[in-house]
Every structure is written in structure tokens, then in C-alpha cells.
Amino acid sequence: MGTRDMPLPRLYELLHGQDRDRWPPEARFLAAAHHGDVRKIKKIAKELDVQGRGIPATVASTTYMGMNALHAAGGRGRLPAYEYLVEEVGMDVDKPDTAQAFTPAAHAVTNGCLPAIKYLVNHGADVRQQRSKGNITLLHTAALLGYSEIVEFLLSRGADVDAISDLGTPLAVAALRGYASIVKILLQNNADPNKASCQFGPLTLALQKSSVSCMKLLIQGGTKVSCDNPFDNPLLKAAEKGLTEAIKCLLEAGANPNVHDTFGRLPIELAAEYGTREDVEILFPFTSPISSVEKWSVDGIISHVKMEIKQLEDGNFVKKRMSDLKRQADEAFKKQDYPNASLLYTQALKMDNFDAKLLSNRSLCWLRMGDGQRAFDDAAKCKRLRPKWAKAHYRQGAALMFTKEYDGAYSALSRALELDPESEEIEKLFWEAMELRLSEKGCLSR
């Protein structure tokens, strides 16, 4: 258990020992608020009121470790404490603490206190409030922690069912945690199953959790099952996880079994490596023949994948094969045969998926073929592998220029120029990005 998840009294015990009489009075004050003990709150406030401002003023102004009494009251969610603090003392129901930017309602949701949440909302708490850190709403928190009754209440009071945060939408959060009951509630309240702010949609997140029940609900709710993005392809994820029932459902719903992952593998190849023979048999009738598989059959695919795995364990074979693939890919690129070049770079990446140069080269192939998203994805991975390599940032900037995301392109190319100030190629694209960025914002006349 981390300190963020720890009840306040337990945290104070770790900091100050178990003898509560030795705690700072502010700590004892917030512990009393945590337990909803109004009598004790007043008693300790009187002890703290050295300036004679009165108990209500002292209660309202006393804080400890960034929290006030109304934040701490969310520990048990006892209504008498809320009634005293809000109606008598007049404390702000939407004021965030300075430790985690949690409002009183956010504390109440975190602790699963539905009566407290109802009280706070009925007394003016903003049901659509977003934390400054990550834009997380009360609904995100309730979905993340599996509080279905709180989810229903918040939606009934106007919470934004499709609110975007750093975690994605509430639906994406519930799918990732595998909470089928909450996925169902959100879909019944018209949550968009295809909306996501992160790299993965709700369907892929549900499969990441191996939640077939969430997957079925999302398909019934109208989620898209076919996706060309290798990072967000549900059939690839189901095959990789060996989820036989999920594979069947996705194929019935129209999922495309001929989309490669980032290393050039089809769902049927992943099924042969990670799943069962049944998975391969299910995918076989829907999969287009793979040229490198000598005998196109279920047994042929399984043998092919097993042989590939065995070959990858042979260092000498890998070294020679990598050299041949790189040479062939470079030759294809020089001939402007970008589809074949990208395929060869992909085959090489299957043998070494941490080769930043291969990712950089394949990113350029995607760009020449007009696929800005894949060009960006490869450049982003290349940058993660070699964050101080100018070309990685340049590739990302070029991809963003193609997709007309000029702010991001400007930032990426600015960093590339910092790392390689002598590059005329980078400098030229940097100035182009700057002009387009300013023009888009109306700062330059056309």
C-alpha cells in the first residue's frame, strides 16, 4: 500500500508514532475529521485557536500536509461532519488540497463514500470537475476503482460520460480494469466506444485485461473491431493473449485478420506462438497466404513459426539474416520500391526490434507511401530507443508535418536541430514548420 492509498491516521502513525497524544495538534485535528468526530474537531480547534478567532474560523483555516478538514472527512464519509463543516463553518466544497489536487468530492469518491458524494453534489460540488493533474474527473476515479453505484449517481447528475483525461475516457478506464458492470452502465448512458485520447481504444484495453465480457459489451455497443493501427488492433491482442473466444467474436464482428503488428506478424502467427492449435485453425480460413510459409496449412504455419523461433536462438544465423535483410531493404529503397523495402525492414525488426536505424528507415518508407500515422509510430519508438539521436526527432517532425500537426512538428524539429545544428535538411524543414505553425495561428499573412 502506497502513502496515497493509506488512511490518514495510519500515515500519521508512520510519521509521528502510535502515541497520538504526541502528534502535532493539526494531525490530530485532521484525524478527527477523517473519523467524522464533530465533537473532537471542535475540541482540537479550540486548542489551536491561540489568536482567539473562534472555533469556526479555526476549523476552516487549519490545514496539515496540504489538506483541510473537509478533505479529510472523506475518509469515513460521515454526514454529520459534512453538515457541520459545510453548513455551519461554510467550507468550500470545490477547493482542492495542495498535495494531490483532490477536492472534497474527489476524496469521497476515492474512499467509495456514496452518501458523502451525494451530500457534496447537493451542496454545490461540481460533478464535472477535473483535477489539474491529468484532467481526471470524478467519473474517471469511480470507474477506475470499480464503484458502479457512484458511477450511476454521477451520470444521473450530469457527469460527462466521454470526458477526456490522461487516462483516456471513463469507458477506457473501466475496460482496462475489466469492470464489465461499469462498462455496461457507461454504454447505457451513451458512452462513445470508439473515443480514446490515449494510444489504445477501449476494446484493445479490455483485451489487455483478457476481459472477454467487456469486449462483448463493447462490440454490442458499436465499437470498431477493424483497425490498421498495429498498436491498437484488437485481433492482434486477442491472438497474442490466446483468447480463443475473443478471436471468434472479433472475426464474427468483421475484424481484419490480415493486419500486421509492428514486427510484421499476423494474428495467425501470434496464435501459433502464444495461443493454441484451435486459435490457428479458427484464423486460417480468414487469413491470406503468407509468402514465406512453404506449405500453406495449419501445420505448415505452426512449423514455420516454431522454426523462426528456433532460428532466432542461433546467433550466427540472426547476424547473417539481419545483414541480408538490411542490404535487400536498402536496395529496394534506392529503387523507390517502398512497399518491398518496408516489408524487408519489418522482417529485420522481427529479429531485432530494438534497432533504431531500422525503425528510422521504415518510418521514411511509410512516409513515402503516404502513411503518416505509421511513420509517426515508428519515429516515436525510434526516439524512445535513442532520445538523443537527431534523426529520430527529425523523422517524427516529418511525420507530423505530413499529418499537418504543425505545433508538434515544430517541437520535434526544434529538438532535432538542437542535437544536430549543422544539418541543412533539418533546418529547412524546421523553418517550414515554423512558418506553417504561425500561419495556422493567424500570425502570418498568406
TrEMBL record:
- The record places domain Serine/threonine-protein kinase BSK1-like TPR repeats at 321-396
The ANK repeat units are at: 134-166, 166-198, 230-262
Q: Look up keyword Plastid and say if it applies.
A: no
- Write down the SUPFAM superfamilies for this protein, in alphabetical order: Ankyrin repeat (SSF48403), TPR-like (SSF48452)
What the entry lists under InterPro entries is as follows: Ankyrin_rpt, Ankyrin_rpt-contain_sf, Cul2-RING_E3_ligase_SR, TPR-like_helical_dom_sf, TPR_BSK1_C, TPR_rpt
Task: Please tell me whether the keyword Protease is annotated for this protein.
Answer: no
Give the UniProt keywords, A-Z: ANK repeat, TPR repeat
Q: Where are the TPR repeats?
A: 390-423
Name-wise, this protein is Serine/threonine-protein kinase BSK1-like TPR repeats domain-containing protein
Lineage, top ranks: Eukaryota, Viridiplantae, Streptophyta, Embryophyta, Tracheophyta
